[in-house]
Structures are given as structure tokens and as C-alpha cells.
Amino acid sequence: MEIRPTTDEDRDVFVDTVHAAFGRFPETPTEGGGLWWSALEMDRCLLALTADGRPVGTAGAHSFELTLPGETIVPVPGVTAVGVVPSHRRRGVLSAMMRHQLAGSRANGEFLSVLLASEATIYGRFGYGPATYTQELTVPRHRAALAVPRAPGAADTAATRADDGSVEVLRSAGCGEILEEVYDRYRRAQPGALSRPHRWWALRAGQPPISPAPRYVALHRDADGRPDGYASYSLGEPDTTLTVDEIIATDDAVFTALARFVLDHDLVTQVVFKHVPPQHPLRRQLADFRAGKVSGDMDWLWVRLLDVPRALTARGWFADGELVLDVEDPFLGEQGRHLLTVRDGKADCVPTDREPDLSLDVSDLGSVYLGGTAPSTLVRAGHVRAHSPDAATLADTLFRTDRAPHCLHWF
């Protein structure tokens, strides 16, 4: 078997092979683009070929930026289009491609890799761990009233900010540049968020509001007229469910204003918010707490560390302390013991012979890295070993972030 990088001339073969792996047929091209594979970077894709040259496996990667805790922005490959045709599964094709891809990312100087997992049982063995989570929230229109904030002064402040701004209804096809700019400001401040490269918007390659699928956009502007948030939505036919693809907002007040706008929409029986971060305050803002029904609680972005010291020193930290991590990477056959020292928001990470506080798999370190999973949860689950009674508590304190990570981007 041969694994080789692709070129633009291989695009059709690559697309046909990955569709065959999933038992699907390529979509028919439509005017305006929008096909997800048009954004593929063919110099970052791989083909697995049999001895006689037949393509049997694919793996690709997008060049993204990931926002870490502390608003540090780093380059990451976004792994995508991974598949093996059914006739060649369980022969080591996938493992060989993943090993080849990880080696290539390291050669590029990248110390993190991310993906969205089609199945939760596949990527843990390659060192990836679920790091961000998302939920779907459904609110019946007749129970959608928002409560008046109870904190002293909060109601006046929220009302003033909402009144100062404005909401304009547009069609997504005509406001791509505005949405791109608003999203870019949002993702730079949101831990766990990925960039949406300009070529994605230009090619309209992705899910709404990037794709050509018709959508309305509620665009929020601040008191000076500057766009600072949007909600992409559609109204189902023949039913009357309003589905919100995403709300992108630079702060909570703007998010609330946009949520209020869609919840007040006429001729709607219910509003479905497809991507709401766990523990988001929207459900608490409803006058009827039980009106908001949570479903679709699932993992989203998976993270894999390729260089533990570089990854740990890249992100920001919000508590001081020391922790010795014994990290095993079974897929790459590596193991290292690291002394993590955090002072004033910065970390130092060096090899050590000290006894470990925690022993863990690199996939578990990926899960806790962005602050979306508490180390103590993995200790209680039996995945991480704490070598002292207070080790898990100390790890929780160190890895806790000022803002929960969340990722909306689909790739």
C-alpha cells in the first residue's frame, strides 16, 4: 500500500473515493458553489493506494487557526474527509494514513491537531479527545418570554444596551463580507473557536450561513452602526419551526438581543437553537425555565496534542501552581513526564523525574486542554490516575478557564 499527498489533479479521484467510503454519491454542483469539497486544500490531502494503484482511502486537513484560553491564536490542521472504502477496512489503512498525517503536521511545526468525529469510538485510539461540546435548545413560541434580570441595575443596563443597538433583516447571499468580519472578531475572543478562512466564504463551501442555502440573517448593529452580531435562521415549510443555525455575538447583551428577536418572530410555533454552549445563560433567561428543552447534547471539536510542552505553554492560565503529568501516547509509541509550572498566567513545561501527580493518555490531555472537561471527571471515570488525594482538585484549578470553550464551525 502507498500513501501519497495529492495535487489539484487528484481532486475528482479524492472526492469519489471519500464518498465511496461513506456509501454516498457526490452532490450535483449548483450555481454559486457551496460544495464542501471545494474548500479542500489538495496539498494537505492524502490518498491510500493499493499495489496496483487503486485508491482505497482518503484523509485531508484544512489550515485553521484555533483560539486557546487566554485569547492566544495558533495554527492547527483541521482533519477532514477521512475514510476507507468498505472493501479495505480493518487492514490498517486508516492507522497508516493517520500516522502519516500526524508526522506531516509535526513536520509543518504544528503542535495541535483538531477534528470533528463522525463516530465517537474511532479517534480516541489515534490520540484525539473530545474538548468542546454543544447543545440544541428548543423553545415553544408561546412560552418564549424572557425574564427581567433580577440583579440590581442589571435590567437597566441590559435594556439600555439593547435599545442603543438595532437589528436588520438581510439575506445571507448578500451580506457575506459583513458576516465574515463579525465572525472573525467573535472567534478571536472565544476559546475553542476556529477561523473561517476567506476562501470558505468566497467559495460558499460549508454549512449555513456560508453555503448558498437560503437563509435570513438578523444582523445586530451597535449604537454607532457597527455590526457586532448576527443570527442565521430559516423557517420550515410546511411546519412553523424557526431554526437558528448559529448566533454569533461579541458579548452576552448582543446574544440576548438576537435571541429575543428570533423568539419574537410571528407565525412560529417553536424556535430551535442548533448550537448553544453547555451552561449558556439563555435557558436561565427564559421566564419559564422549563420552556427550554435541551437535546442534541454532543461533543464537537476533538483535540490532539503533538508536542505536549509547546501546547501547554501556548495557552493562557488563570491560577498558579505546579503539576507533574505523566503522558502516554500509545499510537505514536511515546511517553513523557512533564513538570507544568504556572505563574501569572504563563506556563513553563519541562521534563522531570519527579513522581507524577496525574498519569493520563494523550487523548485525555486533549480533552482537558481547552478547559471544557474537568480532569477530575476523567479521574472519576477511571481514565486518568491521580497519585494523591488532592491531585485532581489541583488539576481542575489549573486547567479551569475564564470562559468555556465552544466551537461552531463545521468542517
Automatic annotation (TrEMBL):
Pfam families: Acetyltransf_17 (PF17668), Acetyltransf_9 (PF13527), SCP2_2 (PF13530). GO terms for molecular function: aminoglycoside N-acetyltransferase activity. Keywords: Acyltransferase, Transferase. The keyword Acyltransferase applies. InterPro entries: Acetyltransf_17, Acetyltransferase_Eis, Acyl_CoA_acyltransferase, Eis_dom, GNAT_dom, NAcTrfase_Eis, SCP2_sterol-bd_dom_sf. SUPFAM superfamilies: Acyl-CoA N-acyltransferases (Nat), SCP-like. Residues 1-152 form the N-acetyltransferase domain. PROSITE patterns: GNAT. Acetyl-CoA binds at V82, G83, V84, R90, R91, G92, V93, L94, S95, S118, E119. The active site is at Y123 (proton donor), F411 (proton acceptor). CDD domains: NAT_SF. GO terms for biological process: aminoglycoside antibiotic catabolic process. Signal peptide: none annotated. Homohexamer; trimer of dimers. Belongs to the acetyltransferase Eis family. HAMAP family: Eis. This is Putative acetyltransferase. It comes from Streptomyces luteogriseus. The lineage of its organism: Bacteria, Bacillati, Actinomycetota, Actinomycetes, Kitasatosporales.
